[in-house]
């Protein structure tokens, strides 16, 4: 998004202030142009009043996640919302951030359904990350064969 106003314009029709859980894919590109090298997950839990940052490269994308947090906390009517860096499985290469983001998002949603909270979401296992990669590759293969 080019500016905080763009973010508000895109989200407002979705009534984000009424949602219990919101997930955002955060890119490390500060420019409005395409690009970037890393993706992480930012999750807002209304009941916990907290934005949780899940980053598979430690705190690499924290500054970009904080920018989104700053923009969204007023839009979501939580001006005193907290920002918390949550534990996350860590990638060991420079190209798996997308898979980690997807698995983290799935884990957060499953944890929220079970426990009604985001904090202390279990860390994804390497097995679940590899399984998600295979699942996506299978979907791509199926699409290509049709």
Automatic annotation (TrEMBL):
Instruction: Provide the GO MF annotations for this entry.
Output: cysteine-type peptidase activity; deNEDDylase activity
Q: Which domain of life is it from?
A: Eukaryota
Q: Which Gene3D superfamilies match?
A: Adenoviral Proteinase, Chain A
Provide the Ubiquitin-like protease family profile domain boundaries: 1-108
InterPro entries with a match to the protein in the record:
Nep1/2-like (IPR044613), Papain-like_cys_pep_sf (IPR038765), Peptidase_C48_C (IPR003653)
Any one GO biological process = protein deneddylation
Keyword terms, alphabetized: Hydrolase, Protease, Thiol protease
Which Pfam families does this one have?
Answer: Peptidase_C48
Instruction: Give the similarity note.
Output: Belongs to the peptidase C48 family.
Return the protein name.
CLUMA_CG017921, isoform A
**Species, as recorded:** Clunio marinus
């Amino acid at each position: 998004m080019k500016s905080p106003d763009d973010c508000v314009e895109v989200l407002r029709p979705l009534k984000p202030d009424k949602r219990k859980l919101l997930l955002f894919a955060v890119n490390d590109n500060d420019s409005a142009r395409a690009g970037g090298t890393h993706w992480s997950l930012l999750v807002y839990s209304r009941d916990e009043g907290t934005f949780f940052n899940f980053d598979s490269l430690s705190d690499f994308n924290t500054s970009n996640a904080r920018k989104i947090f700053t923009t969204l906390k007023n839009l979501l009517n939580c001006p005193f919302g907290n920002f918390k860096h949550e534990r996350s499985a860590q990638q060991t290469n420079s190209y798996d951030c997308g898979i980690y983001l997807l698995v983290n998002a799935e884990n957060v949603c499953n944890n929220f359904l079970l426990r009604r909270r985001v904090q202390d979401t279990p860390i994804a296992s390497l097995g679940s990350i590899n399984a998600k990669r295979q699942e996506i590759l299978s979907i791509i293969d199926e699409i290509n064969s049709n």
